[in-house]
């Protein structure tokens, strides 16, 4: 156990909110425990201290404390859902150009204060387009994870109200949150409001939502990131595009990318000598999401059979099964 003096010093630094002093005393405690032969405890303490230090460094890099844990309350709770993802860019299989553009957004966000000091604004309004299962929603998680920001998912269906004027008021609540709580705000399935078309009886209200949305994003000057995603870019109104700082297009994976995604997903479950390249070719046409599902199915099967690895044949079978599950109209339209 730490000495009485150490405990008092720890408490004092906590009360003074002196993180550096707190960690330095914690380090002394670890050294003290190591000397007394409590090697395992000392090691655990050191690991905890290192993790705390790297989190502090990350915060300093962001130029501010992380946004306080926030739970939307009241009416806002029905409009946005919050999560705190830990996803990283390294988890994604994407083209180099998409990777570079995402890395640029993250860089600009990390240096947003310096950018603002020069009267400029970081990229913060991003439109993601592409077929289902190509990583648009995942990208929003990755941006939040890389910047240690909360991810707020805006429920578009919650915004659409049959009462005139109510929609604009709800959208205002959402954009107040965008201004007040720094985070990544995802407007998923954005075509629901940004579409040129729509059911005739809905058109009026949807048009109003889109117009309010466009006004809000045009005028907002927050440090949050507003991400909109759609797999129907052809339905988007032209006025929508120019309001975004970046439009990133996602594609279905090519065979090499399928192979990379499979490999990452299978991890230690892959049999040695797996021919990834030919699996990637065989699975051509599947999305990343479908490839991930097939890999998971094969792994589950192995677990149930009490086996520690999946063979090439088994994985190929899971992929073929996924291919057969695709609705024919999707195959025809892509
Ligand atoms: N580029 C990618 N790299 C690695 N894994 C991916 C990628 N894209 C998708 N996945 C996997 O597929 C899952 C689903 O992807 P995601 O929800 O991001 O697709 P989406 O583009 O938003 O699709 P939709 O248009 O249907 O909403 C992810 O959680 C991840 O497991
Ligand atoms: Mg999605």
CATH architecture of the largest domain: 3-Layer(aba) Sandwich
Query: What's the domain count?
Result: 3
- Based on secondary structure, the structural category is alpha/beta
| Cofactors and ligands | adenosine-5'-triphosphate, magnesium ion
Proportion in β-strands = 5-15%
Quick one: overall form?
flat
Helix content: 55-70%
What is the CATH C level class of the largest domain, in words? Alpha Beta
SSE run = HHHEHHEHEHHEHHEHEHHHHH
Under CATH, the topology of the largest domain is which? Answer: Rossmann fold
- Helix segment tally: 16
Task: Going across the biggest sheet, name each strand in turn.
Answer: 1-3-4-5-2-6
Low-confidence stretches: 61-69
Q: Can you describe what's shown?
A:
The structure is a single chain. The protein has three domains: 4-62, no CATH class; 74-249, Rossmann fold, CATH 3.40.50.300; 255-333, Orthogonal Bundle (Helicase, Ruva Protein, domain 3). It contains 16 helices and six strands. The protein is α/β, with parallel strands linked by helices. A six-stranded mixed beta sheet has the order 1-3-4-5-2-6, with helices on one face. It is flat. Helix 12 (255-266) crosses helix 13 and helix 14 (288-304) packs across helix 15 (312-325). The site of adenosine-5'-triphosphate has 16 residues, from helix 6 and helix 14. Residues 92-94, 132-138, 229, 231, 261, 288-289, 292 line the site of adenosine-5'-triphosphate.
């Amino acid at each position: 156990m730490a000495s009485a003096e150490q405990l008092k010093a720890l408490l004092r630094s906590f009360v003074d909110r002196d993180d550096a002093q707190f960690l330095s005393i914690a380090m002394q405690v670890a050294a003290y425990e190591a000397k007394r032969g409590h090697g395992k405890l000392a090691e655990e303490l050191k690991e905890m201290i290192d993790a705390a230090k790297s989190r502090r460094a990350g915060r300093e890099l962001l130029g501010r404390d992380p946004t306080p844990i926030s739970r939307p309350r009241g009416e806002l709770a029905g409009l946005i859902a919050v999560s705190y993802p830990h996803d990283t860019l390294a988890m994604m299989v994407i083209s180099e150009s998409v990777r570079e553009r995402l890395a640029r957004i993250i860089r600009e966000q990390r240096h947003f204060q310096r950018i603002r000091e020069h009267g400029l604004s970081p990229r913060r309004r991003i439109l993601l387009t592409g077929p289902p299962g190509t990583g648009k929603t995942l990208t929003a998680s990755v941006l939040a994870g890389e910047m240690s920001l909360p991810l707020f998912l805006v429920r578009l269906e919650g915004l659409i109200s049959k009462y005139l004027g109510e929609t604009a008021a709800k959208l205002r609540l959402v954009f107040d949150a965008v201004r007040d709580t720094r985070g990544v705000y995802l407007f998923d399935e954005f075509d629901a409001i940004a579409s040129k078309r729509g059911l005739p009886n809905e058109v009026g209200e949807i048009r109003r939502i889109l117009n309010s949305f466009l006004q809000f994003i045009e005028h907002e000057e927050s440090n949050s990131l507003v991400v909109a995603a759609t797999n129907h870019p052809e339905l988007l109104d032209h006025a929508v595009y120019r309001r975004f700082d970046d439009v990133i297009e996602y594609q279905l994976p090519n065979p090499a990318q399928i192979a990379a995604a499979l490999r990452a997903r299978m991890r230690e479950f892959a049999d040695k000598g797996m021919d990834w390249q030919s699996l990637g070719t065989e699975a051509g046409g599947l999305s990343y999401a479908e490839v991930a599902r097939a890999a998971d199915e094969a792994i589950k099967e192995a677990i149930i059979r009490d086996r520690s690895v999946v063979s090439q044949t088994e994985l190929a079978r899971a992929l073929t099964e996924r291919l057969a599950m695709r609705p024919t109209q999707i195959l025809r339209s892509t």
